[in-house]
Design a protein that fits this description.
By secondary structure, the protein is α+β, with helices and mostly antiparallel strands. The chain has a domain of about 80 residues: OB fold (Dihydrolipoamide Acetyltransferase, E2P) (Beta Barrel). About 35% of the residues lie in helices and about 20% in strands. The chain has a 5-stranded mixed beta barrel. It has a 3-stranded antiparallel beta sheet with strand order 7-6-8, with no helix packed on it. Strand 4 and strand 5 form a beta hairpin. The longest helix has 19 residues. The chain starts with a strand and ends with a strand. It binds zinc ion.
């Protein structure tokens, strides 16, 4: 394969050996790309500064061969770095980590273009860096919109099973939306009034409606969004519990929500882990 250039968001980095770094990029045209940047941890490397988490970069990559698929970064130039304002503000930073981790998981491993997911992720990070909205709400809005972009938009205005128009009070995570009284299976969360409307407003970007929701509605909506995402990803997001929204409050649930089994962390092929004791620098 020939080298290619692309625009990407750095979602994760690992130190490799003495001076190299492995970067994971969510790129516009090549999906998730992992590549080694040589000697970027030396103080005089200009490329190193642009290959940090939260950076938007223009990169030239030589694709890798073999099982690992690990490419090589030939050139990288910064287009936008959102790291400094995010790292300086812990609530914005933890929400930013949720954005990076969710984007990485949703992108999948098939190398398909992800222009919409990349646009949503960079937009959410900009909003966090500029303190435009409460960080927890920005993270929730991103989760819902990124899921919608992946074909997993929760059904909120009718029964997900029979289609009867709502609003319905029961939400069933495994079914992907609200359910009517006739279709209601075991294990539904009972929604506090206003939660379905809050989730719809987050999806549509109606911030006027979102910002007047009560704390109880915001908390439960966050829990529903997270449970819906984790059900689809079939694993836990490590950064999600760090977002300060208070306790996730799934009131009146008649059964515990289905909890996805956490997978072991496996972002790097084993041969690279053996090469160096890789250390993540993104998620605390
Ligand atoms: Zn129904």
């Amino acid at each position: 394969m020939h080298p290619f250039t692309d625009t990407g968001l750095v979602v994760r980095t690992y130190d490799l050996g003495e001076a190299d770094r492995i970067v994971t990029l969510l790129t516009r045209d090549h999906g998730l790309v992992r590549a080694v940047a040589r000697a970027v941890r030396r103080t005089r490397s200009r490329m190193g500064a642009s290959l940090e988490p939260f950076a938007v970069v223009e990169v030239q990559i030589a694709p890798g061969r073999g099982r690992s698929g690990l490419g090589t970064v030939r050139q990288a130039s910064s287009r936008e770095s959102l790291a400094r304002p995010l790292v300086a503000d812990y609530p914005a930073y933890t929400s930013g980590c949720v954005v990076l981790e969710t984007a990485e998981r949703l992108a999948g491993e098939d190398g398909a273009p992800t222009p919409r997911l990349l646009g949503l992720a960079v937009g959410a990070l900009r909003s966090l860096a500029e303190h435009r909205r409460p960080p927890g709400l920005v993270a929730d809005a991103f989760l819902l919109r990124a899921m919608a972009a992946s074909g997993w938009e929760p059904v909120l205005d009718c029964c997900v099973n029979c289609g009867v128009v709502g609003p319905h009070r029961a939400f069933h995570v495994a079914s992907g939306g609200t359910v009517c009284v006739h279709c209601r299976p075991q294990g539904c969360a009972m929604l506090t009034p206003g939660v379905a409307e809050h989730l719809s407003a987050l999806l549509a970007g109606r911030w006027d409606a979102v910002t007047v929701s009560s704390p109880a509605v915001v908390r439960q909506a966050s829990g529903i969004a997270a449970a819906h995402l984790q059900w689809h990803l079939e694993r836990d997001l490590r950064s999600l519990p760090l977002v300060d929204r208070g306790v996730i409050d799934l009131v009146q649930s008649d059964e515990p929500l289905p909890v996805a089994q956490p997978f072991p962390a496996e972002p790097l092929p084993a041969e690279h882990l053996e090469e160096s004791r890789a250390r993540t620098t993104q998620i605390p």
